Amino acid sequence: MTSTLEKDLIASIRNIPDYPKPGIVFRDITTLLGNPRTFRRAVDELVHPYAGNGVGKVAGIEARGFILGGAMAHQLSTGFVPIRKKGKLPHETVRIAYSLEYGVDEMEMHKDAVKPGEKVLLVDDLIATGGTAEAAVKLLRQMGADIVAACFVIDLPEIGGRRKLEALGVEVRTLVAFEGH
Ligand code: AMP
């Protein structure tokens, strides 16, 4: 059954058919972020199970994961770690390549961004294939992070990203689901 919160969140997300290419429905969260109530409720709900769990850092995936992750870190009183596209971070980094639908890309984080054994919550706006989040999990683990969970506002369950992360032993928390791509 769909809860009132899910209904409100779903209603606040703008759907843009055939963007960025035919067949994809872009799930635009700028409308959710622009609404004071849904922005706060989404952040509250994402962090809810993890308050008081000893999380040391929230790691956000560029770029929409920064907006959610900054708010989550503030709420949980943790630090924030940006996981960025390659070439953006100024200090020593670790880098990982990952597959996109066409070709590959690379993401980076600062080498000193997490302490070995530190509890980290990963966040992005949406999980589709799970390829982006999987790379972020691997990068964080390479630096010794203990990943408590990966959080997303939106799941596209037919594409199977959640299963990919769960197969890595990562707990996945999502707030709403949409059919298709
Ligand atoms: P994936 O690696 O396939 O799980 O893709 C997740 C990343 O791509 C996230 O950073 C999303 O913001 C973005 N993304 C993928 N599909 C969509 C979509 N239908 N609408 C909005 N963003 C998407």
What would you say this structure looks like, in words?
With 181 residues, the protein is α/β, with parallel strands linked by helices. The chain has six helices and nine strands. The chain has a domain at 54-177: Rossmann fold (3-Layer(aba) Sandwich), CATH 3.40.50. A seven-stranded mixed sheet has the order 5-6-4-3-7-8-9, sandwiched between helices. Strands 1-2 form a two-stranded antiparallel sheet. Strand 7 (119-127), helix 5 and strand 8 (146-155) form a beta-alpha-beta unit. Helix 3 (36-47) crosses helix 4. The radius of gyration is 16 Å and the shape is globular. The structure holds adenosine monophosphate. Residues 24-27, 61, 64, 124-133, 161 line the site of adenosine monophosphate.
Topology readout:
Blueprint: H1 4-12, E1 14-17, E2 25-28, H2 30-33, H3 36-47, E3 57-61, H4 64-76, E4 79-85, E5 93-99, E6 104-110, E7 119-127, H5 131-142, E8 146-155, H6 161-167, E9 172-177
Parallel strand pairs: 3-4, 3-7, 7-8, 8-9
Antiparallel strand pairs: 1-2, 4-6, 5-6
The structure holds adenosine monophosphate.
